[in-house]
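Progress report, Aim 2. The chain analyzed during this reporting quarter is listed below.
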Amino acid sequence: MKTIINTLIEISKSILAAPIQIPEKLKRINKYIHFGLQVLKQIMEMQEKENESKQKKKSRYVFR
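Predicted structure tokens for the chain:
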């Protein structure tokens, strides 16, 4: 899932930076899609960090 989102972000970046003429409506739509993908990426990264911290907390207090 992470690689798919990163690939789509790169595609939307290349569309925004393309030297060809794209209709203004498509540019605006692409900007919103790019923004949404960036938000999804940030949410996924936050969830991964949260899961890592939970795993660290669980393993930290093990007594033998």
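The chain has a mean pLDDT of 85. DSSP finds two helices and no strands in the chain. These observations will guide the mutagenesis work planned for the next reporting period.
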